[in-house]
């Protein structure tokens, strides 16, 4: 892009704050392999070195980021097969401990390949303790049913972390009513014997490695966005799964992405939606001026490159400055609606 931020630009006095983004680390103590289609190389061990490089970069900044958003799939599902889930998670979390600023963890499908929802809720991957507790009435209710929260890294900016596997057959007790409900929903849209296959589907996002948002979570999101509208806040939404087709492979979308978009589009405050999952990255601005940014995955990044970004926030825009495979983006805020002339 012609308008990439220069090193001088990102230090200009109008910068309010910054935050880091990194996606799909998928560490495993394994030799390099390939994706399910066998056409894209995955660097399981090297992903840990990429994470270390990202953290060293953020720690060295003269003005460090206010926080880092980890967009899910922190370790690979292969760990479960080798009974290495806890060990691999411990290794990655030890690297994150080197980071001098808070990290907010999103949960993706690979978290649920390795751990149950109950395990994750009681693990270091639950960063809900970082939520904003100054606003009463906007807590997630009932607590524990889904993993979502909001926080304020800087005055008038609210970040919302969503649970894209709130509706899912992954990580849930198979005897539970919720599992049966989600399996029924999945099979109604996907008649394939292999539920990870989108073959022949009119809605290819209905595969087992995706999930969706419950109505309870969407109602809660609507309440938070209503508060942000009223208080003239700018909002960044974070999810492992993307929700806008123009920015993503259709196979990687959340099951009920349209429902999430409907809630977001009913509000003025949302600036952008950050997601992972696709590994290739992606970007589009929707008709309502919301920027959908899918961050390129660490797991498919070769040893000679990198995959993380820092978002610099200004009064009129955000600038994503990518490293390695992560593309620079200019995220302009929506223009204020012009005042309507008073009728006589």
Shape: globular
SS class: alpha/beta
Percent of residues in helices comes to: 10-25%
What share of residues are in beta strands? Answer: 15-25%
Distance separating the two termini: 47 Å
Q: In angstroms, what is the radius of gyration?
A: 20 Å
Largest sheet: 6 strands, mixed
Determine the oligomeric state from the structure: single chain
Features:
8 helices; alpha/beta; six-stranded mixed β-sheet; 344 residues; globular; single chain; disordered C terminus; 23% helix
Give me a quick take on this structure.
The chain is α/β, with parallel strands linked by helices and 344 residues long. The chain is built from eight helices and 14 strands. The protein is 23% helix and 19% strand.
Question: What this model shows, in words?
Answer:
The chain is α/β, with parallel strands linked by helices and 344 residues long. It contains 8 helices and 14 strands. Strands 5-4-1-12-13-14 form a 6-stranded mixed sheet. A 6-stranded mixed sheet has the order 6-7-8-9-11-10, with helices on one face. Strands 2-3 form a two-stranded antiparallel ribbon. Strand 10 and strand 11 form a beta hairpin.
Question: What is the secondary structure topology, with strand pairs?
Answer:
Elements: E1 17-22, E2 33-34, E3 41-42, H1 46-60, E4 67-70, H2 78-81, H3 85-96, E5 103-105, H4 109-114, H5 117-121, E6 149-154, E7 157-161, H6 177-189, H7 215-230, E8 234-238, H8 257-265, E9 270-275, E10 282-285, E11 291-294, E12 307-313, E13 317-324, E14 329-332
Parallel strand pairs: 1-4, 4-5, 7-8, 8-9, 9-11
Antiparallel strand pairs: 1-12, 2-3, 6-7, 10-11, 12-13, 13-14
Helix pairs in contact: 7-8
């Amino acid at each position: 892009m012609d308008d990439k931020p220069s090193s001088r630009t990102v230090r200009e006095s109008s910068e309010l704050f910054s935050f880091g983004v990194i996606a799909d680390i998928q560490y495993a103590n394994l030799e390099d392999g390939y994706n399910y289609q066998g056409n894209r190389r995955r660097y399981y061990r090297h992903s840990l070195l990429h994470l270390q490089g990202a953290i060293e970069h953020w720690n060295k900044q003269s003005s460090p980021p206010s926080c880092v958003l980890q967009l899910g799939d922190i370790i690979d599902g292969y760990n479960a097969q080798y009974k290495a889930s806890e060990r691999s998670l411990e290794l990655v979390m030890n690297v994150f401990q080197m980071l001098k600023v808070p990290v907010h963890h999103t949960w993706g499908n690979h978290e649920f390949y390795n751990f149950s929802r109950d395990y994750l809720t009681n693990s270091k991957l639950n960063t809900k303790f970082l939520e904003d507790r100054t606003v009463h009435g906007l807590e997630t209710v009932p607590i524990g049913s889904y993993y979502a929260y909001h926080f304020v890294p800087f005055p008038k900016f609210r970040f919302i972390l969503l649970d894209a596997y709130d509706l899912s057959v992954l990580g849930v007790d198979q005897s539970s009513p919720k599992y049966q409900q989600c399996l029924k929903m999945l099979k109604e849209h996907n008649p394939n014997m292999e539920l990870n296959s989108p073959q022949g589907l009119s809605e290819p996002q209905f595969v087992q490695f995706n999930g969706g948002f419950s109505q309870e979570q969407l109602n809660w999101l609507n309440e938070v966005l209503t508060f942000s509208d009223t208080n003239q806040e700018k909002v960044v939404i974070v999810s492992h799964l993307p929700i806008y087709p123009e920015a993503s492979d259709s196979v990687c979308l959340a099951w009920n992405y349209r429902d999430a978009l409907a809630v977001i589009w009913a509000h003025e405050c949302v600036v952008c939606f950050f997601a992972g999952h696709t590994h290739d990255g992606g970007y589009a601005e929707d008709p309502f001026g919301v920027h959908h940014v899918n961050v390129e995955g660490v797991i498919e990044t070769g040893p000679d490159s990198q995959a993380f970004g820092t978002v610099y926030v200004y009064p009129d825009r955000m600038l994503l400055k990518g490293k390695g495979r992560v593309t620079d983006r200019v995220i302009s805020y929506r223009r204020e609606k012009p005042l309507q002339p008073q009728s006589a």
